[in-house]
Design goal:
two-stranded antiparallel sheet; Cytochrome p450; 43% helix; mainly alpha; 2 domains; single chain; 359 residues; binds protoporphyrin IX containing FE; globular
């Protein structure tokens, strides 16, 4: 959580939240609490009326504090003056953005909304994906060994178990087994487990006619774990991704038309379902799909690969007994805008070669 928070702050806005250095960094305390209440208000209309309860007041105070932290980030960005021409960070691009007709830049309020959404979208999601992936790595036989083999082949881990050379940006695209591991973990644990869309007209979805202005919740978690759509859906099998690059993954030999009342994701809405390959249901949406899909997915994959490769080069991992095995982890799953576990996932990390690391 701390790493993901500091990376998104520094890489996007040049702001160091210092949450890795200071255990009581406020942003990682207040945002998850605020989001928990958001989820309740999104799914239960009565919750919106219960603003007088202690929990609701605490959550509102958390969101106020989050907004004031974000105001601070924006003030810091502006205090640095106009961004340099070669600064391509998100913050610099927001400061440069101009309205196409009026030529006006973003107001402070608009900047705060953009920066707040980026930080919110970027850190919990990456952090929980990291936790679930490490959990899958620690509990799936043979996976740590295969990751270690790949790291050894690339010189990131030495044959005697000591650390190899530091990871570089060019290495990331070459970590193909690790990429498969991450894709598979995001299949089984899509931390954005579903996302709403509002119908802008009366819309036919399969056998259902949905009126205009209705929120339809698309459950990625269900699509990702359905035995109708995946062979051995409940097995963690990174090799199922070997050679598959389509981010929404259409299975080539998909023949179960009877399981699929509608065409592809893009055919959820529309009167003329497409034919052929395009009509096959797409089934993999860890970053959603379409024009509003995750804008930070490239960065998320960079962070995930870098952190996991670095940890696996140094440690082997074992799920802590207190978690009660994979069943205990499953029992502690909770959905509060993101899918995560109640109190994190505890692991034991053992250094591969302590003496070599110290030297
Ligand atoms: C594993 C990590 C991540 C996951 C699983 C994830 C997933 C998602 C999903 C499912 C959406 C919803 C898109 C939709 O409405 O269809 C989204 C939106 C968004 N994400 Fe991510 N995300 C991740 C990391 C990041 C990072 C690192 C950033 C920023 C640096 C980011 C920034 C955003 C923003 C700004 C949006 C809103 C886009 C819009 O409304 O146009 N995300 N993300």
């Amino acid at each position: 959580m701390r790493v993901a928070c500091d990376v998104v702050g520094q890489a996007s806005f040049g702001h160091d939240f210092k949450s890795v250095d200071f255990s009581d960094a406020r942003v990682i305390k207040v945002l998850p609490k605020g989001l928990e209440e958001c989820q309740k208000r999104m799914t239960n209309p009565i919750q919106r009326l219960l603003t007088f309860t202690k929990a609701a007041k605490e959550a509102d105070a958390c969101m106020d504090e989050y907004n004031s932290i974000i105001r601070g980030v924006v003030m810091e960005m502006k205090a640095r003056g106009p961004p340099k021409a070669d600064d391509m960070s998100v913050g610099a691009q927001l400061l440069r953005a101009k309205h196409p007709t009026t030529g006006h830049g973003l107001t402070d309020r608009q900047l705060q909304a953009e920066v707040g959404t980026f930080i919110m979208g970027g850190f919990e999601t990456t952090a929980h994906t990291l936790s679930f992936t490490l959990f899958c790595i620690a509990t799936s036989p043979g996976v740590q060994e295969k990751i270690a083999d790949e790291l050894r082949d690339m010189g990131l881990l030495n044959a005697d178990g000591s650390l190899g050379r530091p990871i570089q940006a060019e290495d990331l695209n070459l970590l193909s087994y690790l990429s498969n591991v991450i894709k598979e973990s995001m299949r089984m644990f899509p931390v954005v487990a579903g996302f709403p869309r509002r119908t802008d007209k009366v819309t036919q979805i399969g056998n259902y006619k949905v009126p205009k202005n209705v929120f339809v919740y698309i459950l990625f978690h269900h699509l990702h774990n359905s035995p109708d759509l995946w062979d051995n859906a409940s097995d963690f099998d990174p090799m199922r991704w070997e050679g598959i690059n389509d981010p929404t993954y259409v299975q080539d030999d998909y023949m179960h038309a009877h399981h699929a009342p509608f065409g592809g994701f893009e055919n959820f809405v529309g009167k003329t379902p497409k034919k052929g390959v395009e009509a096959r249901p797409k089934k993999y949406f860890p970053f959603s799909a379409g024009p509003r899909s995750c804008i930070g997915q490239g960065m998320a994959m960079m962070v995930l690969k870098t952190v996991i490769a670095t940890l696996c080069a140094r440690f082997t991992m074992r799920l802590a007994d207190e978690m009660g095995g994979p069943e205990g982890v499953a029992a502690s799953e909770v959905m509060a805008l993101t899918l995560h576990t109640h109190h994190g996932i505890l692991m034991h990390c053992t250094e591969r070669a302590p003496a070599a690391v110290e030297a």
